[in-house]
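Progress narrative, work stream C.
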Amino acid sequence: METVVSEEMLESLRSKAKKLERIVVIISLITFPLYGFLFYKAMIDEEGFSALFALKIIIIAAVLSIGTLGFLWFIIVKQAYDKFNLAFKSKYVLQTINEIAGFEKLQYIPKGGFLWDDVKEAAIVACGDKRYYESEDLLFGEYENVSFKISDVITKKMVRRNKKNRVEEIFSGQIMCLYKFDDMKVSNGYLQVFENKFLSDMSGWKAEHKIETENETFNDRFSVYASDEHNAYYILTPHRIEKIISFADAIDGQVSFVFNEEKLFVAVRRESLFDANMDEPVSGQHKKIIEDAKFIQDAKEILVSQ
C-alpha cells in the first residue's frame, strides 16, 4: 500500500531544512571574524598594518566564509532539502493531482525523463549535443483518457568563442507528450507551431512548408511549418488555433507545439515543474500544484480540439 504523506509531515521536513539553513548561515557569519583574526595573526609581522593590509584580510576572510557557506550548504542543507523535495514530488504532488477529476494512473520517477533520441525525433526543440543532455522528474499517467508524460529537459551544445570551447544552454524547461486518444484527428507528418519569440536555434530543424493561416493574430504571434500543407489546414482548425493562443497566454514562458501522427508535443521554457519551495509553508504550495496540473489539462484541450 502506498504511503500517504500529510502536509504536517512535509512541513516538518521543510522546517528542518530551513532550520539547518539558518544554522549554516550563522556558522558562516561566525567564521568571517575568525578567519580574519587568524590571517591577521599570521601575516601582520610580515606585512605590517596598513589600509591595503586590512582590505586584503577582509577579502580573504569574506571569500573563505562564502566558501564555508557553500560547502556546508551542499553537504547539510541540500540533503535535507532533497529529502523534502523528493517526498513533496513523489508523494504529495501525486496525491494532490489524483484528487483532481480526470487524472488517473499517475507515476513519478525522479531520475526518469525523455531520451535524447525522443527529443530529436519530436522536433520540438533543438536537442543539442547528446553528451550534455539532461532530463529528469518524469511524471506520467492519464487525463480524461489521454495518456501523457512530462519531464524537465535541458539541452546544450558546444560552441567556440574567442578561440575557446564552451558549453552553452539551448533549452531549459518542460517537454510534454500527449498520445493515444481514440477519437482525435491524426496528423499526417510533422506540424510545428513555434511562438515567434521561440524562433532561434532553440527551435531546431523545421519542416519543409511555411504555413499562413487565416487568423492574422495567430500569424503575427506564431510561425507554422508542416511536412504536408493540406495536413496543416486539417489540423489547425479555427477552434484549435484559439486554444493554442489561450494556452500561450496562460503560460509563463515561451512555448512551441508539434503534432505528429497521434501525438502532441508541447515545450515550455520555464522553471522546473512541481518543485518544492523551502521558503514557503507547504499549505501555501498546494495552489501551485493545481496550477501546474492545469498545464496538462489545457494541453489536452489543444490535442482534442476539432
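Work stream C, second folded protein:
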Amino acid sequence: MGGSLFVFSAPSGAGKTTITRRMVAEHPQLLLSISTTTRPIRAGEVDGEHYNFVSEARFRADIAAGCFLEWAEVHGNLYGSDAGWVDSALASGRDIIFDIDVQGGHQIHAARPETVLVLIVPPSWEALESRLRGRGTDNETVIRARLAAAKAELQDSQDYDVVIVNDDLQTALDAVRAVLRREHAVNGGRAVLDTLVKTG
C-alpha cells in the first residue's frame, strides 16, 4: 500500500516549521520533503539533508524534463520538489510532508489530487503581528512585507482541506496528529481563517 502526501502551509510566524519538525520526529514513517534549490549552500548546511543544491542550468533542465511536482522562484533563487523522489518514497509506503507555501501546495495538489492540504493559522491577525515582532530579528520593512505576504497567502488558501489554529502548540499538535490519522481536525479553524482574511 502506498503512502500519503500532506502539504503544510502557513503565513510566516504561525508555527508551521515547529509543527512539521515535531511530526517527523514522532512518526518514523513520515518523511519531510527536501527541496532542490539553486541558492548557495550556507554554513552548517549539508547537501541532501537540508536541500539538494544544484546549478541553475541543471534546475532549468529538470523543469523542462518535468521533474518537479512544484517549483517557484523566490528572491532570485529556484526551489522545487522532485517528483521522482516523492513517487519512490510513496511506493515504499512512506508518508511525505511538504513544508511549503500555498502556491506550491496548489501545484502539488494539481499534480497529485489525493494530497491533503493543511493550513496552520494564528488565532488572530494581532497574534500573528505580535509573533513576528516578538522574534526581534526583522526590521519594520521586513515585518510589513511578511504581513502583506501573509494576507495574500491566507486569501489564496481558502480551498485547503483542513485549517488548524495554532493558539496553543500542544492542541495544534494533537489536531495535526488527528489529520495524519486521516481524521477531521478543523477545531474551528475555518471560521478563524475567514476572520483573518477579512481583518488582515
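Confidence is low (pLDDT under 50) at residues 183-188. No further action is required on this item.
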